[in-house]
Structures are given as C-alpha cells and as structure tokens.
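Review box. Two proteins, two foldings.
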Amino acid sequence: MLEGIVQRGRRPWLPNQGVTALDVWHADDVPTLGTFDLEETTVLFTAVGDLSTSSTTVWAYLPLGSETRALVADAEFDSAGEMQEFAESLFCNSHALFACADDFVLNQWGTEPVGAGPTAFLAAVIAFLEQVSTQLKDELADREGDQAARAASRTARRVIREQKREVSEIVARHPEFA
C-alpha cells in the first residue's frame, strides 16, 4: 500500500487522484498534518520541519490500522506541538513513506522503517534524505558521464573530420595520390 499513496506532480496533502475525505488537523497556509482516505485505507500525513525555510519540503505518510484509526478519532490536543508529537509517535515501529516536494509538488519518494523512541521518526527522515541524496548523486554522475561520452564522441567526430579534411587537402595538392 505504501508505494501507491503518492503520484508525481500531486500536492502533498492530496497525493493521489483517488484521495477522499481529507481531514486537515493543522495548516500553515497549506495543510501540514491530517488524514485522508485512499481506497479502503485511512492515511496519516504530516509535513516534516518548517515549511517556510525552503521551497523543497519533506512529507511523511502512514496507512492507519483500525486500532490506530480509533485512537486518532478520540485524540484531543492542547497545542499544535502536542498534535505533531502525537502524529510522529504513530510512525514509530512501522514502515513509512516519505516524499519530497518542490513548491508543494511531489517529485520523489521512498519508504523507510521507523524504529522506536523519541528520535526514531527523525532518524527515518534522515535515512530517506540520504537515499534521495544518493539517487541525485547517481543521476548527476550519469549525466556527467553522458556529457563526457558525448564530448568524447564529438572529439572523435572532430578528429575524423579533420583527418578527412587533411587527406582532401593532400589529394588536392598531390593529384597522383587520388
């Protein structure tokens, strides 16, 4: 179920065209924490960190089981911080989906296990970002490799053209070689 939650080009709080029943718990200009239904599953979503510091944001998604749905339905909070801590605690001891968005448009995602303890959620976010960093480095290396290959190809074609031109000049000066 994790892989089917998000689609490229969608908004993080509506990450799939099949989303229904969006329930926003908290918003700062955009929804940052809440749930939505996707097919027969309720999914918890949350933004990670401060959305105002960068145009690139990280989001976390967790399908909720029936016991957790009941716990969520009865939850009450005194502050936004308490609500966020509660949401992050739900990710513990699970496998979660994390996604990156540029200008609130999803473009990259992956899954990570979330362990137990107060820092487990952030540790999983860091593992996901390291995975994204590795993918981007690989893409960059591939692109640089492609550019180097194209440059080598251009160099080889240029050498061949120069050699043909030199041979043509020699033949022009020395018709006996023709």
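Next protein.
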Amino acid sequence: METGLFLGVLAWLASMFSWWHMPTWAKRWSLNHFVITDMVMAGLTYYTMAQFSKSIASMVATVVAGMLMNFTMMALGTNMMREYLGLENPVHVPLRTRINNRIGRK
C-alpha cells in the first residue's frame, strides 16, 4: 500500500513537471478538457506502472496519481490561476478580435 502511494505521488510529480514544459496551447487545451487529460494520464500511468510492478501497487499508484492530477487540473483551471499562469482563455474573445490582435491591427 505504501509503495503504491509513493509511486502514485512520483507519477503525479513527473506528469506535472512534464505539463509545465508543454506549449501554452497544449496547457490551455488540457485545462479546458481536464477529464480527457485525466483519462489519458491515468492510462499512461497504469501502463507505465504495470511494466515494472505486477502487483496491486501499480493500481494504487494509478488511482493516487489520477486523483492528484484531477485535483490539480481543477485548481489550475480556476480563473485566478489562469491569470497567474498567463493562460487566459481566448475562447470567449471573438475570432475577428483575435485575428486583429495577432496581425497588429486595432
């Protein structure tokens, strides 16, 4: 049990370090679709853990890492954290305004 908790925390830390180095558009997408991100991360974690641990520890690690990732994505998805990280959501900005901002027109 303790091994699974430890492996789960390590897997969560590794996924968060990987997330911080992703491009901004990928971070924004993952925050907008955190359930899909959580499912993909849980699948990758289970696959990775099952490669070196054939016991219940790999399942416990997957559950712990998945829960921590889900809580982290929900916390990072708040408007305050988006502004802090510089990941404001451009979905609510009209397309014409985004195009004009990109080419430098007002």
